[in-house]
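Quick question about two entries, pasted in order.
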Amino acid sequence: MPSAENLILIGILLLALVTVESGGYFLTRVVRGKVPANRLQQNFFRAGHAHAAVLLVLSIAILAVISHAALDGFWLWLARVGVPIAAILMPAGFFLSVIGRDPERPNRLIVLLWAGVAVLTAALITGGIGLIAGGIAAL
C-alpha cells in the first residue's frame, strides 16, 4: 500500500493528466490547421504531449511501489519525485523551445528537455536499484 504522501502525490498526478487531456485538444486544433504551426512545431508539440502523458502515468506506477525500495533521504526523494519533475521539464522543453512564428530550429529553452532527461535518468536508476535492493532484502 502506498504511503499517505504517495497517495496525495498520485491524486495530484491524476489531476495533472487533465491538463494533458486539454493539451490533446490543442494538438487536434494544430493538426486540423486551426492553429498555425510549422512541421517542427507540430513534431515538438506531439512529442511534448506524448512525453507528458507517459511520464505522468509512469510516475503513478512508481509511487505505487517505491515504498518497498531500500532507499531513504535524498535518494528516496529522487526516486519519488524525479519522474514527475521530468514530466514537467521535458514537455516544457518541447513546447517552449518552438514558440514563436515559424521557428526554423528549437531555441535555448530546449535545455529544459535535456534537464528533464537528466532528472528522469537519475530517478529511474535510483528507483530501479532501490527496488532491486528492497526485493533482495525481502527474500
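Here is the second entry:
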Amino acid sequence: MFLLAFLALIVERLTGYPDWLFKLIGHPVTWIGRLISQLDTRWNRDTDDFEIRKRMGIAALAVVIVVVILIAAVLQDVLLVIPLGPILLILIAASLPAQKSLERHVREVASSLKHGGLPAGRRAVSRIVGRDVQDLDEAAICRAAIESLAENFSDGVVAPAFWMGIGGLPAGAAYKAANTADSMIGHRSPRHEAFGWAAARFDDVINLPASRLTAVLFVAAAFFVRDASPLNAIKAIRRDAKHHRSPNAGWPEAAMAGALGIALAGPRSYGGQMIEASYMGEGGRRELVYDDIHDALKIARIADALLIGLFGVLAFFMWQV
C-alpha cells in the first residue's frame, strides 16, 4: 500500500483539504472527534474510581480504533473494485496527512510577526500550540512555531503516511483515530489522567517509527539547505532527544534544532504553570527571529519531498515484487 500513501501525499501536497469540502462535510478527524467526545461524556464518570476510569478509557480507545478500521477496510475494499473507485480512495487517503495546512499555519506565524508585531504573532502561534502565549516575545514565538512544525511534521505527515504504507487506508485511519484520541483525552488533567492513559501510551508507541524517520529526513534535508548542518543535527539527536519529556517529540525537534543551530523546547508555561523541560540543540540560546521560521520551513519542505520520493521508490519495488 505504499503506492496509496505515495499518491495521497502528492495529492495533499498539491491541494490540501479544500475549505469548501470541510464546510460541506467536515473532515475525518472531526468525525472521529465526535465519537471520542461521546465516549468521553458517557464513559468517563467523575463518580468512578481511578482504575474503573482507566479501564473505560482502554475500552473507549479500542472502540474508536475498531470502528475506524472496519469502516476504512470496507470502504477500501469497495472502492478498489468499482469504476473510478481507486481515484476516490486516493482522495480519501489524502485527507489523512496534513502537509499543506501545517506549512500554511507555521508560515502565518512568521508573516504575522513581520507585519503585525507581537500581538499578531501571539494570535497566530496560539492556533498551533497549547502553551500560554500572552507573554511570549518574538524569540519565544518563533521557537514555539518551529517546535510545532517539527513535531507535527512527524505525527501529522510522516506517521499517517507510514502507517498507510504499512496497512493501507485502515491502518492510516486507525493511526489518525489514535492520534486524535491522544490530543483530546491524553492529558494529565484531573478528568483525563485515568481515562486518557491508554490513548497517551498507545500514541507514544505508534509514533515511535515516524519520529525516528522524521529525524532522518531532517538530517538528510539539511544537506540541501544553505548554512544548515546535518552533522550538528545528528549530534543534537544523540545528545538531546532522550532528554525530551516526550519519547518521540525530541527526535524531530533535536534534529531541526541541530540542523539550524538553534535551541528548541526548554521551559514553557501551560495554564499559568511553568513546566521545566530540557533544551533541544544549543545555538548559544540565541534569540530567534521570524526568518528562522522560514529556514525551518525549508528543512520541512525538502524533508517532505524526500518522504514522497522514498514512498515512490518503495511503491515501485513493491509493484515489481
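Reply: Residues 2-320 form one domain. The longest strand covers residues 268-270. Hope that helps.
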